[in-house]
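Write out the bound-state structure for zinc ion.
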Amino acid sequence: MSTIRYCKLRDTDVIISPNRLHRPTQFNVPKDNYKLEECPFELGAEDATPKEIFSIKDENGDWICRVVPNLYNALCIDEGKSSKREGFFTSKSGFGAHEVIIETPSHYKMADKYTLKQWDAYLRTVIHRLEDLRQDSRLEYIQLFKNHGSFAGATLLHPHSQIIATGFVPSSVKAELQRCKDYYDIHNRTLLLDMVHEELSVSKRVIFENSSFVAFAPFASLYPFEIIISPKEHICDIVEFNEDNLKDASSILQDVYRRLYALLGDFHYNMIFKNLPNLKDDSSSYHTFYIQIIPRIYMLAGYELSTSMRINPLSPERVAKKLKEIL
Ligand SMILES: [Zn+2]
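---
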């Protein structure tokens, strides 16, 4: 059972989750010695996971994208949502949801090899899970993320993403939303779309674009090869995607990963979807949905951890040029 403890000094919550200690890691086993029968995400190994929540199937009835509860869950939907004082300190119950999206039945298929159909199934699965989880108004924030490779925090190679939904909005998300709101109150435009407008007009950090989206290495990239994929027009949340947006999102994700793999090989990375909180407020007017891809090439070191500032040895202009030229 997890608890969520609040640190007053650093204004952040911490999930204390003993269940996560028991996760097996595939990366302790040399790649050649790993047996696919040990992978719980294979087609035919459905009994190795908790009961399926959702899946998209192909014409033969086999799943091509599948969602299950995380066996080593950090949070639990059956916990009551509560908070308490413990003397000077405050904590919350481990209420929330923790799901795994198994992106493909193919263990060794990396994101650069996904077909447009696979990306489409993945995005539709994400949309379905967000819409479903948001029915529970106790869940205030739903974070989708993907960890690929041990430097990115993954324990299994089989391609998967995770969803963690919390009964509150994490403080760093709240702070970013507030910056978007402050900007919107002054300029009556969204902060991200103004960034995108500038990136498109100077063009030197743009990697790829289509009718709905643009991928760029941001002006102040926090990490080498960091990429933001943003809509060109205001879309506050992935559930607002229309059919054209879905097609264009699949195509830009396919293109960006092909470029990254062509340049970096099988690199470790995190991918994060920035959605709206599940709150009845006006954030849909000033928040723009975006996807952030963070290659984990350099470890965060003392300066980064102590100041939250980053030291990035690669200019985003150089990154964009390399990624543009590679295909
Ligand atoms: Zn597998």
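---
DSSP finds seven helices and 14 strands in the chain.
Residues 96 and 169 are 12 Å apart (CA to CA).
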